[in-house]
Protein backbone atom coordinates (compact mmCIF):
# COMPACT_ATOMS: atom_id res chain seq x y z
CA UNK A 1 0.00 0.00 0.00
CA UNK A 2 1.36 3.39 -0.96
CA UNK A 3 0.22 6.19 1.35
CA UNK A 4 0.85 9.90 1.04
CA UNK A 5 2.42 11.88 3.86
CA UNK A 6 1.47 15.54 3.83
CA UNK A 7 3.87 18.39 4.52
CA UNK A 8 2.66 18.51 8.15
CA UNK A 9 3.63 14.85 8.65
CA UNK A 10 0.08 13.54 8.65
CA UNK A 11 -1.29 10.97 6.20
CA UNK A 12 -3.68 12.32 3.59
CA UNK A 13 -7.38 12.07 4.43
CA UNK A 14 -8.07 9.57 1.64
CA UNK A 15 -5.25 7.32 2.86
CA UNK A 16 -6.59 7.38 6.40
CA UNK A 17 -10.06 6.43 5.15
CA UNK A 18 -8.65 3.57 3.08
CA UNK A 19 -6.70 2.24 6.06
CA UNK A 20 -9.84 2.37 8.21
CA UNK A 21 -11.81 0.43 5.59
CA UNK A 22 -9.14 -2.27 5.47
CA UNK A 23 -8.96 -2.55 9.26
CA UNK A 24 -12.77 -2.65 9.56
CA UNK A 25 -12.67 -5.78 7.42
CA UNK A 26 -9.85 -7.27 9.52
CA UNK A 27 -7.51 -7.31 6.54
CA UNK A 28 -4.71 -5.06 7.74
CA UNK A 29 -2.43 -8.05 8.34
CA UNK A 30 -2.75 -8.82 4.61
CA UNK A 31 -0.95 -5.58 3.73
CA UNK A 32 2.66 -6.75 3.44
CA UNK A 33 4.20 -3.31 3.31
CA UNK A 34 3.27 0.35 3.60
CA UNK A 35 5.37 2.70 1.49
CA UNK A 36 5.18 6.46 1.99
CA UNK A 37 4.95 8.99 -0.81
CA UNK A 38 6.17 12.14 0.92
CA UNK A 39 4.74 15.41 -0.35
CA UNK A 40 7.29 17.50 -2.27
CA UNK A 41 9.86 14.69 -2.10
CA UNK A 42 10.11 13.00 -5.51
CA UNK A 43 12.88 10.75 -4.16
CA UNK A 44 10.68 9.14 -1.50
CA UNK A 45 9.97 5.48 -2.18
CA UNK A 46 6.23 5.98 -2.65
CA UNK A 47 6.75 8.82 -5.12
CA UNK A 48 9.12 6.65 -7.15
CA UNK A 49 6.64 3.77 -7.23
CA UNK A 50 3.93 6.14 -8.43
CA UNK A 51 6.12 7.75 -11.08
CA UNK A 52 7.15 4.35 -12.45
CA UNK A 53 3.49 3.41 -12.89
CA UNK A 54 2.15 6.77 -14.03
CA UNK A 55 0.17 7.30 -10.82
CA UNK A 56 0.05 10.74 -9.23
CA UNK A 57 -2.46 10.19 -6.41
CA UNK A 58 -2.41 8.08 -3.27
CA UNK A 59 -3.40 5.72 -1.87
CA UNK A 60 -2.80 3.00 -4.39
CA UNK A 61 -2.20 -0.71 -4.01
CA UNK A 62 0.26 -3.00 -5.76
CA UNK A 63 -0.68 -6.68 -5.77
CA UNK A 64 1.89 -9.21 -6.93
CA UNK A 65 0.34 -12.58 -7.80
CA UNK A 66 3.09 -15.00 -8.82
CA UNK A 67 4.92 -12.32 -10.75
CA UNK A 68 1.84 -10.69 -12.24
CA UNK A 69 1.43 -7.15 -10.95
CA UNK A 70 -1.94 -5.45 -10.63
CA UNK A 71 -2.24 -1.84 -9.49
CA UNK A 72 -5.42 -0.51 -7.90
CA UNK A 73 -6.14 3.17 -7.41
CA UNK A 74 -9.66 2.49 -6.05
CA UNK A 75 -9.91 1.11 -2.51
CA UNK A 76 -13.36 -0.34 -3.27
CA UNK A 77 -12.12 -2.21 -6.34
CA UNK A 78 -9.00 -3.38 -4.49
CA UNK A 79 -11.06 -4.86 -1.67
CA UNK A 80 -13.69 -6.48 -3.87
CA UNK A 81 -11.28 -8.08 -6.33
CA UNK A 82 -8.44 -8.98 -3.99
CA UNK A 83 -10.51 -10.11 -1.02
CA UNK A 84 -13.92 -11.12 -2.45
CA UNK A 85 -14.80 -13.24 0.58
CA UNK A 86 -13.74 -10.75 3.24
CA UNK A 87 -16.19 -10.03 6.04
CA UNK A 88 -18.16 -6.82 5.87
CA UNK A 89 -17.38 -4.24 8.57
CA UNK A 90 -19.27 -4.80 11.79
CA UNK A 91 -21.51 -1.75 11.31
CA UNK A 92 -22.71 -3.10 7.98
CA UNK A 93 -25.44 -5.21 9.50
CA UNK A 94 -28.30 -6.13 7.20
CA UNK A 95 -30.85 -3.34 7.32
CA UNK A 96 -33.87 -4.09 9.42
CA UNK A 97 -37.08 -4.47 7.49
CA UNK A 98 -38.19 -0.89 7.07
CA UNK A 99 -41.71 -0.27 8.27
CA UNK A 100 -43.68 2.92 7.73
CA UNK A 101 -41.51 6.00 8.14
CA UNK A 102 -42.70 9.09 9.97
CA UNK A 103 -41.49 11.51 7.33
CA UNK A 104 -42.13 14.66 9.35
CA UNK A 105 -40.21 13.26 12.34
CA UNK A 106 -37.39 12.18 10.02
CA UNK A 107 -37.24 15.63 8.44
CA UNK A 108 -36.84 17.14 11.88
CA UNK A 109 -34.19 14.57 12.88
CA UNK A 110 -32.19 15.11 9.71
CA UNK A 111 -32.50 18.89 9.71
CA UNK A 112 -29.01 20.37 9.50
CA UNK A 113 -27.30 17.00 8.97
CA UNK A 114 -24.57 16.76 6.36
CA UNK A 115 -25.20 14.53 3.32
CA UNK A 116 -22.93 11.64 4.47
CA UNK A 117 -24.95 11.40 7.69
CA UNK A 118 -28.24 11.42 5.75
CA UNK A 119 -26.95 8.70 3.41
CA UNK A 120 -25.91 6.60 6.40
CA UNK A 121 -29.32 7.14 8.06
CA UNK A 122 -31.12 5.99 4.92
CA UNK A 123 -28.98 2.93 4.24
CA UNK A 124 -28.98 1.82 7.88
CA UNK A 125 -32.75 1.44 7.52
CA UNK A 126 -33.16 0.29 3.93
CA UNK A 127 -29.83 -1.18 2.82
CA UNK A 128 -29.99 -2.59 -0.71
CA UNK A 129 -33.72 -1.86 -0.70
CA UNK A 130 -32.69 1.77 -1.31
CA UNK A 131 -31.58 2.48 -4.87
CA UNK A 132 -29.35 5.40 -5.81
CA UNK A 133 -30.53 6.90 -9.09
CA UNK A 134 -27.30 7.54 -10.96
CA UNK A 135 -26.80 9.89 -13.89
CA UNK A 136 -24.64 12.86 -12.94
CA UNK A 137 -21.91 14.23 -10.73
CA UNK A 138 -24.13 14.65 -7.68
CA UNK A 139 -25.22 11.02 -7.87
CA UNK A 140 -21.65 9.72 -7.90
CA UNK A 141 -20.94 11.81 -4.82
CA UNK A 142 -23.79 9.89 -3.18
CA UNK A 143 -22.34 6.57 -4.37
CA UNK A 144 -19.01 7.59 -2.87
CA UNK A 145 -20.68 8.45 0.45
CA UNK A 146 -22.67 5.21 0.38
CA UNK A 147 -19.56 3.12 -0.25
CA UNK A 148 -18.01 4.54 2.91
CA UNK A 149 -20.94 3.66 5.19
CA UNK A 150 -20.34 -0.08 5.01
CA UNK A 151 -24.05 -0.63 4.42
CA UNK A 152 -25.38 -2.45 1.36
CA UNK A 153 -27.02 -0.30 -1.30
CA UNK A 154 -28.25 -0.52 -4.89
CA UNK A 155 -27.49 1.66 -7.91
CA UNK A 156 -29.47 2.00 -11.12
CA UNK A 157 -29.36 4.30 -14.13
CA UNK A 158 -31.52 5.00 -17.17
CA UNK A 159 -30.06 4.39 -20.61
CA UNK A 160 -32.45 6.34 -22.81
CA UNK A 161 -30.74 5.37 -26.05
CA UNK A 162 -29.83 9.03 -26.63
CA UNK A 163 -26.97 9.48 -24.14
CA UNK A 164 -23.59 10.95 -25.08
CA UNK A 165 -20.80 8.39 -25.62
CA UNK A 166 -18.96 10.17 -22.82
CA UNK A 167 -21.85 9.43 -20.45
CA UNK A 168 -21.81 5.74 -21.33
CA UNK A 169 -18.08 5.58 -20.63
CA UNK A 170 -18.72 7.44 -17.37
CA UNK A 171 -21.25 4.83 -16.23
CA UNK A 172 -18.76 2.05 -16.82
CA UNK A 173 -15.96 3.98 -15.13
CA UNK A 174 -18.06 4.43 -11.97
CA UNK A 175 -18.95 0.73 -12.04
CA UNK A 176 -15.27 -0.21 -12.16
CA UNK A 177 -14.07 2.44 -9.71
CA UNK A 178 -16.43 1.37 -6.92
CA UNK A 179 -16.58 -2.31 -7.97
CA UNK A 180 -20.38 -2.20 -7.86
CA UNK A 181 -23.22 -3.53 -9.95
CA UNK A 182 -25.24 -0.88 -11.79
CA UNK A 183 -28.66 -1.86 -13.04
CA UNK A 184 -29.10 -0.23 -16.45
CA UNK A 185 -32.77 0.33 -17.27
CA UNK A 186 -33.74 0.66 -20.95
CA UNK A 187 -37.01 1.87 -22.48
CA UNK A 188 -39.71 -0.65 -23.27
CA UNK A 189 -38.95 -1.67 -26.86
CA UNK A 190 -42.54 -1.84 -28.12
CA UNK A 191 -43.51 1.50 -26.57
CA UNK A 192 -40.40 3.21 -27.90
CA UNK A 193 -40.85 1.85 -31.40
CA UNK A 194 -44.49 2.98 -31.46
CA UNK A 195 -43.53 6.46 -30.21
CA UNK A 196 -40.76 6.94 -32.78
CA UNK A 197 -43.01 5.64 -35.58
CA UNK A 198 -45.62 8.25 -34.71
CA UNK A 199 -43.43 11.18 -33.69
CA UNK A 200 -40.03 10.65 -35.26
CA UNK A 201 -36.70 11.07 -33.51
CA UNK A 202 -36.75 14.82 -32.78
CA UNK A 203 -40.37 15.64 -31.96
CA UNK A 204 -39.34 17.33 -28.68
CA UNK A 205 -38.12 20.39 -30.62
CA UNK A 206 -41.65 20.92 -31.94
CA UNK A 207 -44.11 19.84 -29.25
CA UNK A 208 -42.03 19.58 -26.06
CA UNK A 209 -39.98 16.86 -24.44
CA UNK A 210 -42.57 15.33 -22.11
CA UNK A 211 -43.65 12.57 -24.49
CA UNK A 212 -40.13 11.46 -25.32
CA UNK A 213 -39.00 11.58 -21.68
CA UNK A 214 -42.11 9.67 -20.69
CA UNK A 215 -41.11 6.72 -22.86
CA UNK A 216 -37.33 6.90 -22.47
CA UNK A 217 -37.07 7.92 -18.79
CA UNK A 218 -40.28 7.82 -16.77
CA UNK A 219 -41.43 4.33 -17.76
CA UNK A 220 -38.03 2.68 -17.08
CA UNK A 221 -37.78 4.55 -13.77
CA UNK A 222 -41.22 3.32 -12.78
CA UNK A 223 -40.06 -0.26 -13.39
CA UNK A 224 -36.84 0.25 -11.40
CA UNK A 225 -38.66 1.73 -8.41
CA UNK A 226 -41.27 -1.03 -8.34
CA UNK A 227 -38.64 -3.32 -6.77
CA UNK A 228 -37.52 -0.84 -4.07
CA UNK A 229 -38.72 0.56 -0.78
CA UNK A 230 -36.76 3.81 -1.10
CA UNK A 231 -34.64 5.70 -3.56
CA UNK A 232 -31.99 8.39 -3.37
CA UNK A 233 -31.37 11.28 -5.75
CA UNK A 234 -28.72 13.95 -6.23
CA UNK A 235 -31.24 16.78 -6.50
CA UNK A 236 -30.36 20.16 -5.00
CA UNK A 237 -32.64 23.11 -4.25
CA UNK A 238 -30.51 25.51 -6.29
CA UNK A 239 -30.42 23.24 -9.36
CA UNK A 240 -33.74 24.56 -10.57
CA UNK A 241 -35.24 27.38 -8.47
CA UNK A 242 -38.42 27.25 -10.53
CA UNK A 243 -39.15 23.59 -9.62
CA UNK A 244 -36.91 22.41 -6.75
CA UNK A 245 -36.80 25.33 -4.33
CA UNK A 246 -38.75 23.51 -1.59
CA UNK A 247 -36.94 20.18 -1.84
CA UNK A 248 -36.74 18.24 1.44
CA UNK A 249 -33.97 15.79 2.34
CA UNK A 250 -36.60 13.08 2.85
CA UNK A 251 -40.13 12.88 1.48
CA UNK A 252 -42.83 10.40 0.68
CA UNK A 253 -42.88 9.92 -3.08
CA UNK A 254 -46.28 11.01 -4.35
CA UNK A 255 -45.48 10.30 -8.01
CA UNK A 256 -44.10 6.76 -8.14
CA UNK A 257 -44.82 3.55 -6.26
CA UNK A 258 -42.37 1.07 -4.77
CA UNK A 259 -42.80 -2.55 -3.84
CA UNK A 260 -44.69 -1.74 -0.64
CA UNK A 261 -47.36 0.62 0.59
CA UNK A 262 -45.09 3.64 0.40
CA UNK A 263 -41.97 4.74 -1.43
CA UNK A 264 -39.56 7.00 0.45
CA UNK A 265 -37.37 9.42 -1.46
CA UNK A 266 -34.11 10.80 -0.07
CA UNK A 267 -32.44 13.97 -1.38
CA UNK A 268 -29.30 14.19 0.80
CA UNK A 269 -27.74 17.01 -1.24
CA UNK A 270 -30.83 19.20 -1.09
CA UNK A 271 -29.10 21.97 0.86
CA UNK A 272 -25.72 21.78 -0.84
CA UNK A 273 -24.68 24.12 -3.63
CA UNK A 274 -22.95 23.07 -6.82
CA UNK A 275 -19.70 24.43 -5.39
CA UNK A 276 -20.05 22.20 -2.31
CA UNK A 277 -20.66 19.15 -4.49
CA UNK A 278 -17.64 19.83 -6.67
CA UNK A 279 -15.44 20.50 -3.65
CA UNK A 280 -16.42 17.04 -2.41
CA UNK A 281 -15.72 15.51 -5.83
CA UNK A 282 -12.25 17.07 -5.92
CA UNK A 283 -11.37 16.28 -2.31
CA UNK A 284 -12.54 12.67 -2.50
CA UNK A 285 -11.36 12.07 -6.07
CA UNK A 286 -14.79 11.04 -7.24
CA UNK A 287 -15.08 10.12 -10.95
CA UNK A 288 -17.04 12.56 -13.10
CA UNK A 289 -18.31 12.82 -16.67
CA UNK A 290 -15.62 14.12 -19.03
CA UNK A 291 -18.26 16.41 -20.60
CA UNK A 292 -17.91 18.66 -17.55
CA UNK A 293 -14.43 19.55 -18.82
CA UNK A 294 -16.04 20.65 -22.10
CA UNK A 295 -18.35 23.26 -20.55
CA UNK A 296 -21.35 21.08 -19.71
CA UNK A 297 -22.87 21.50 -16.25
CA UNK A 298 -26.23 19.69 -16.27
CA UNK A 299 -26.06 16.67 -18.57
CA UNK A 300 -28.97 14.72 -20.02
CA UNK A 301 -29.64 13.22 -23.44
CA UNK A 302 -27.42 14.43 -26.28
CA UNK A 303 -30.11 16.20 -28.37
CA UNK A 304 -31.47 18.05 -25.32
CA UNK A 305 -28.21 19.18 -23.70
CA UNK A 306 -25.69 21.77 -24.74
CA UNK A 307 -22.65 23.31 -23.10
CA UNK A 308 -23.50 26.12 -20.71
CA UNK A 309 -22.79 29.72 -21.65
CA UNK A 310 -20.99 32.18 -19.35
CA UNK A 311 -23.33 33.40 -16.60
CA UNK A 312 -26.10 30.92 -17.41
CA UNK A 313 -27.86 28.92 -14.72
CA UNK A 314 -26.89 25.25 -14.98
CA UNK A 315 -30.37 24.11 -16.07
CA UNK A 316 -30.55 26.72 -18.85
CA UNK A 317 -28.64 24.34 -21.12
CA UNK A 318 -31.28 21.62 -20.80
CA UNK A 319 -34.36 21.88 -23.12
CA UNK A 320 -33.26 25.48 -23.72
CA UNK A 321 -36.12 26.11 -26.17
CA UNK A 322 -38.76 25.66 -23.43
CA UNK A 323 -39.93 27.76 -20.45
CA UNK A 324 -37.98 27.50 -17.20
CA UNK A 325 -40.91 25.90 -15.39
CA UNK A 326 -41.05 23.10 -17.98
CA UNK A 327 -37.44 21.96 -17.61
CA UNK A 328 -38.16 18.72 -15.76
CA UNK A 329 -38.28 15.33 -17.45
CA UNK A 330 -40.90 13.77 -15.18
CA UNK A 331 -38.52 11.87 -12.91
CA UNK A 332 -38.99 14.33 -10.07
CA UNK A 333 -42.14 16.21 -11.00
CA UNK A 334 -45.27 15.18 -12.78
CA UNK A 335 -48.67 13.53 -12.43
CA UNK A 336 -49.22 10.30 -10.62
CA UNK A 337 -48.49 7.38 -12.93
Tags for this model:
single chain, about 325 residues, alpha/beta, Rossmann fold, 2 domains, 6-stranded mixed sheet, two-stranded parallel sheet, 10 strands, about 35% helix, about 10% strand, globular
Describe the structure.
- The chain is an alpha/beta fold.
- It folds into 2 domains: 81 residues; 224 residues, HUPs (Rossmann fold), CATH 3.40.50.
- The protein is built from 12 helices and 10 strands.
- It has a 6-stranded mixed β-sheet. The chain has a two-stranded parallel sheet with strand order 1-2. Strands 3-4 form a two-stranded antiparallel sheet.
- Helix 5 packs across helix 6 and helix 6 packs across helix 12.
- The longest helix is centred in the middle third of the chain and has 16 residues.
- 35% of the residues are buried.
- The model has no long low-confidence stretch (mean pLDDT 87).
Mean pLDDT equals 87
Structural class: alpha/beta
Q: Which outline best applies?
A: globular
Distance between the termini: 51 Å
Q: Which oligomeric state applies?
A: single chain
- What's the helix-strand series? EHEHEEHHHEHEHEHHHEHEEH
Structure summary, number of beta strands:
10
The CATH superfamily name of the largest domain is HUPs
Largest sheet: 6 strands, mixed
CATH topology of the largest domain: Rossmann fold
What is the helical fraction, as a range of percent? 25-40%
CATH class call of the largest domain:
Alpha Beta
Number of helical stretches of at least 4 residues: 12
CATH architecture type of the largest domain? 3-Layer(aba) Sandwich
Number of domains: 2
How are the strands ordered across the major sheet?
7-6-5-8-10-9
| Strand portion | 5-15%
Radius of gyration: 22 Å
